[in-house]
Amino acid sequence: MIGVYFCFRHDDAPSFFEDPNSQKQVPCPHIHDPAEKYISLVIPAFNEEHRLPGALDETINYLQERAGKDKSFTYEVVIVDDGSDDATKQVAFDFVKKYTVDNVRVILLGRNHGKGEAIRKGMLHSRGELLLMLDADGATEVTDLEKLENQIHAVASKEFRVGESTSSDSSFRISDIPLAAFGSRAHLEEQALATVQSD
């Protein structure tokens, strides 16, 4: 049987993975550790037992499809349960069992800290070179990830070339360039409003 692992934290204590079957604890990875995956998708979740399964199915199917086409594409999905009082934790654990702890991990915050803290914890304990956040409600199409990813690569490549003359290391990793990118659905809302107004 596959062990179910999760990260937990008690105030200022370090975070650990714990296998509920063996009770063994292993420190969670930290953002400053070398990347072990190409991409980490962090999904903050608070009382999302009903919406989370659909979003996870769509997300993991997409990631598996990409990994099948490109063997260098590695991923993890980090679900951060922000103190849910419904079955969100169990839904997340079911996905760990189905897809293995190497690809799906769960961080339990214990009590509700808010979406910002859930995202922060997920990012801090991710193993990806690229760290991205998706909402648990599936409001963003996971296939749109490639648009954002392409822009990140374009900016990072440009920044690398600018600093290349001072660097003796010609190997380039996306994580070598500090940058942040934000996707927005605001233009879709404007289009929806415009469409409604034109009827």
From TrEMBL:
Family annotation (InterPro entries): Glyco_trans_2-like, Nucleotide-diphossugar_trans
Domain Glycosyltransferase 2-like stretches: 40-152
Pfam families the UniProt entry points to: Glycos_transf_2 (PF00535)
PANTHER family, sorted: DOLICHYL-PHOSPHATE BETA-GLUCOSYLTRANSFERASE (PTHR10859:SF91), GLYCOSYL TRANSFERASE (PTHR10859)
Protein name: Glycosyltransferase 2-like domain-containing protein
